[in-house]
TrEMBL record:
<dbReference type="InterPro" id="IPR027417">
    <property type="entry name" value="P-loop_NTPase"/>
</dbReference>
<keyword id="KW-0963">Cytoplasm</keyword>
<keyword id="KW-0808">Transferase</keyword>
<keyword id="KW-0547">Nucleotide-binding</keyword>
<dbReference type="GO" id="GO:0015937">
    <property type="term" value="P:coenzyme A biosynthetic process"/>
</dbReference>
<dbReference type="GO" id="GO:0005737">
    <property type="term" value="C:cytoplasm"/>
</dbReference>
<keyword id="KW-0173">Coenzyme A biosynthesis</keyword>
<protein>
    <recommendedName>
        <fullName>Dephospho-CoA kinase</fullName>
        <ecNumber>2.7.1.24</ecNumber>
    </recommendedName>
</protein>
<dbReference type="GO" id="GO:0004140">
    <property type="term" value="F:dephospho-CoA kinase activity"/>
</dbReference>
<dbReference type="InterPro" id="IPR001977">
    <property type="entry name" value="Depp_CoAkinase"/>
</dbReference>
<comment type="function">
    <text>Catalyzes the phosphorylation of the 3'-hydroxyl group of dephosphocoenzyme A to form coenzyme A.</text>
</comment>
<dbReference type="GO" id="GO:0005524">
    <property type="term" value="F:ATP binding"/>
</dbReference>
<keyword id="KW-0418">Kinase</keyword>
<keyword id="KW-0067">ATP-binding</keyword>
<feature type="binding site">
    <location>
        <begin position="17"/>
        <end position="22"/>
    </location>
    <ligand>
        <name>ATP</name>
    </ligand>
</feature>
<comment type="similarity">
    <text>Belongs to the CoaE family.</text>
</comment>
<comment type="pathway">
    <text>Cofactor biosynthesis; coenzyme A biosynthesis; CoA from (R)-pantothenate: step 5/5.</text>
</comment>
Amino acid sequence: MEEQRTRNIVGLTGGIGSGKTSVAEILESEGFAVYYSDDRAKDIVNEDEVLIQKIKELLGEKAYVDGVYNRKYVSDIVFNDKSKLEQLNHLIHPAVAIDFENWVKNHDTRFLFKETALLFELGLHKKCFKSLLVTADENTRIKRVMDRDGKTYREVEKVIEKQMPEREKIKKADFVIYNNSSFQDLEIATKDFIEKLNSL
């Protein structure tokens, strides 16, 4: 992405159960445009014919059932195979990057937000003007995901163990919102962040 584009892009990230989607929705309610990388990736793997073929070559024909991305089959393969996961990411993320560039061209405001779970892992924060991390205590995050997805404590814990440690993300982030209490507190913290961002 050309240099001048980075000046108004803010990376928004957070681990599972952190509440980054809630922050994204608050930002939208305040008039900001948010690009949901993770949601777009789910669409792109079903839309991009070249990508579809490459994924089949990597993971086999069973990666798609009746032309639809077989998320459970793919997850079962890559969850315990780091090499396959990295190869899959190297296929999907460039396609998402192109989609994001096209999205940016259609939005002309002072700040645009790029929501992605892997902002720091993929080094995407280096292309952003600033980065915002939404975080919460691990037990709080696990309970949220258990309540939301019906998973066991250990199932959520395994997912968290595979993500970059929160302490590392906090060191890398320009701004951090701690989401350990109520939605009202999260709104206040997000609006406080907006004031700081606008003052830059």
